[in-house]
Amino acid sequence: MTEATSLLREPWERLERQRQAGKFGIWVFLASETLFFGALMLTYAVCRVEHPDAFAAAGRETNIWFGTINTAILLTSSLTMAVASQAAAENGRSRRLILVCLGATAALGLAFMIVKGFEYKEDIEKHLLPGAGFALRQPAAQLFYGLYWLVTGVHAIHLTIGIVLVVRLVLLGAARQIRLRGSPELEVTALYWHLVDVIWIFLYPLIYLPGRAS
Amino acid sequence: MTDAALADELPFPPRADYLRAGSTLLSWLATTDHKRIAILYALTITVFFFMGGAAITAVRVELFVPNGWFLSSDTYNRLFSFHGIIMVWFFLVPSIPNTFGNFLLPLMIGAPDVAFPRLNLFSWYLTLVGGIFAVYTLVAGGVDTGWTFYTPFSTMFSNTHVLTAAAAVFVVGFASIATGVNFIATTHMLRAPGMTWFRLPMFVWSIYATSIVMVLATPVLAISLMLVIAERWLGLPIFDPARGGDPILFQHLFWFYSHPAVYIMVLPAMGVVSEIIPCFARRRLFGYDFMVYAIVAIAGIGFFVWGHHMFVSGQSPYASLIFSFLSFVIAVPSAIKVFNWTASLYRGQISFNSPMLYALGFVGLFTTGGLSGLFLASIPIDVHVTDTYFVVAHFHYIMVGGSVSAFFGALHFWWPKITGKMYPESWAQFAAITMYFGFNMTFLPQFVAGYLGMPRRYHTYPAEFQVYNVMSSAGAAVLAAAYLLPLMYLTWSLFHGLRASGNPWGATGLEWTTTSPPPPHNFDIQPLVDRPPYQYHAEGQSAGTDSPEVQNARSLR
Predict the structure, then answer these.
(1) CA geometry: angle at A176 spanning A161 and B31, to 5°?
(2) CATH class of A15-208
(3) pTM higher than 0.90 for the full model?
(4) Cβ contacts (< 8 Å) between A154 and chain B: which residues?
């Protein structure tokens, strides 16, 4: 069995075609994901247009430091992921580089989750969970925080799936169970990772910037 | 020496087909063969079909008399809700795409399997998990929101099992997305050499268009149900007006999926009919190119008509105007399809085998459903008949008269290919005709009752509507019998049916060039395609001028 055929799966006859199909398939799935988060952002937009003042007041209660640090972490993780997938696409002795970059990507993803955990803890202490004893007066501020918990939660679930996928590649690659160079799975994982990152870039201004301009 | 003894002594073992490729339970539950997964889906949705059918049978029996006689109002609400949820998400949406689409798509494009076989199996397991949630909902006491889960009733007031019902639909939605991704990638990446886009059979086009709708609309349904779950379970205020939420927003999100979902249900049916009619009329499909454009147009415009479900919900009149206009526009490609099916019969050599009876029934019932849809697209009439039995009759004409008829047409047309057995034709014709009349008996009176003002989903009704309800319930009994018949004679045919040849109908299409049932990898050699589909006669001629062999091919068994 040659190196190329070890990556080949049914029903494909050539690895190149399989890679194209994997990429094509994940792009279609990402379109679906876009609609998924798009519906959430639409809900946010409708509520914000209906209650601009409450959303501004609620937005001022978020901790922009946590949000900004997390944005930096996630953007850096996309960089390491991009280096990993670029290295995998090149011919050369790049196995170490790929493994290190994938490991860094997973670690940065985990760091994001840890920072997010501290942020959640602070939110709970500030009584920003909707329900009885909510910190803010305006009823619609609860709406903002309802959506806040929901979108960040759904995003965190997506990120967790991403971390699991990357860790899986690192473990299989380190144990030489699969060849990372030229692996369609690596490219597919990378595209998914970047999408989760892009979604965060949209969430950041929606969550942390309302009410801070003036 | 008997024939049986002779057969045993033939030098070749029986040809391995996908049904005999393994006989353990695990060889089915862990299979990645698209044909076996199609069978798994078929068994699953058959169970759900009869569950949903049983629920509505109880409802129809109850409606024989104006004030009910054996159900409480709560039970009544739960039964029609269960019927809707099961029939929409666990039968109609997966019906043709996941059984026949799964089985036929790779065969029709000359591929050994779908693009992502393991994802395909995963999608079936997701359907199963969703189904378990749905059945749990029923066993635990049911849900009474209707299939539409409207807020704020579903989030704040209903004290039934909304959470598990919504979770069931949420999970099965991801099965739908996985299937859609798989079919789109398969159609793009795995076509045989020479199988260009405009040589694809209409069924492939319809599955492709359906998949696009699945991939782009289903995530929005997932979000709308997730918001309901979040509000009910976690107490997050999303649709609660007291805390600034907007219950109407739920309707927008829900119908953004659920109107395109109608096309998820009916586009594959159109594909099936476009295969059956040319075969049994021995004619080329009239206007193939425009059939393709029409199906793509329906899938596209279908995304922009959801507001016609909300004419009385408190939507801006300008929005209603646009939605009304677009709902009229989408009738144009639908009409093109009806005209083209009809034109395909012209100068044909028509034979009325059971698949053809179902297909012709589809054309008539779909036209009735579609034309009554135009009444509903018109705002003044819609305001009058909103939430009446007129609407119920309209969408059952599309979804049952249309999609379910086509499902049974497909079942009979491809049964020899799937199982390798012929079914008893007279029984099948009898069932097809019974189904047609049973259907019309059930739903035609509902147009009248609805126009006269009988609201849908009501447990009791004024005595003046009884005559329509008795007609409807009597028709439902006929319909139920017609649905049970195929279950019996098709099962019988598995054991006692005559062996089917590779191409019993003399049909064109790559799926008929392989054996029945097909081998595990579909084709022994990679098929090459050098002609458009539906070459039932030479260019410029008609079925009548063809050689007798071609004409008679379908009677050869």
Answers:
(1) 60
(2) mainly alpha
(3) yes
(4) 226
